[in-house]
Amino acid sequence: MFHILLKKTCFRENIAFKIFNTNRLLAPSSLCLTGRVTLSGKDPCGCDGSQGGGNKIIFKPYIPPPKKSHDEKNMSLNRPMSPHLTIYAPTLPAMTSIVQRITGIIITFYALLLGCGSLFLSNGVETYVSMIQSLDLSRPLIFIIKIILGVPFVYHYFNGIRFCMWNAGRWLEMKDVYATATKSFVATAVVTLFFAFI
């Protein structure tokens, strides 16, 4: 396969290009087809009227472009990067969404731990609860452990209500998005502290 490169020349008449071999690519480079002459005696291509108007054809073997990764190609073309966390400053809606997914993973881990424990441990769950009670932990430490274990449940519940309402087409205005985020944080704190005190 060959490129046909037409060098910068001056033409005084229209030219029709024909490609007889489909394996060849015709690539004209900066042709001047106007034939007009300015006051300086040169046409817009920079050729004066005295020069002949022939064209020069150079055959070069086809060289495929070098292989580049997606990011290298975009950077060489100065394309903007897709938005992600290292570009945009963290916003409240984005953080609530990320924490919603994290708490979902934690709750799934709790469920798997409880299910596998009930299936594969030799004694029932009550035995291990009594073992934990026999450690005689202090009340402040038990309070902190209850908060750590309870926050994922409560936050995922209240923030999940927001997601369900968004799917129903409600609370999609920006003021509602921020207001419901604040309310879900407050509800999470209140309900978690309530269950931790029990």
Detailed description of the structure:
The structure is a single chain. It contains five helices and three strands, in the order βββααααα. By secondary structure, it is mainly α. The chain folds into two domains: 1-65, no CATH class; 92-197, Fumarate reductase/succinate dehydrogenase, transmembrane subunit (3 helical TM bundles of succinate and fumarate reductases). A three-stranded mixed sheet has the order 2-1-3, with no helix packed on it. α2 crosses α4 and α4 (139-167) packs antiparallel against α5 (174-197). The chain is elongated and about 100 Å long. The chain starts with a strand and ends with a helix. The model is unreliable at 1-43 (pLDDT under 50). This is Succinate dehydrogenase cytochrome b560 subunit, mitochondrial. GO terms for molecular function: electron transfer activity; metal ion binding. It holds the Pfam family Sdh_cyt.
CATH homology-level superfamily of the largest domain:
Fumarate reductase/succinate dehydrogenase, transmembrane subunit
Q: What is the percent of helical residues?
A: 40-55%
| Percentage beta strand | 5-15%
The helix/strand order is EEEHHHHH
CATH topology-level fold name of the largest domain = 3 helical TM bundles of succinate and fumarate reductases
User: Stretches where pLDDT falls below 50 for ≥5 residues?
Assistant: 1-43
Mean pLDDT: 78
Biggest beta sheet summary: 3 strands, mixed
Coarse shape: elongated
CATH class of the largest domain: Mainly Alpha
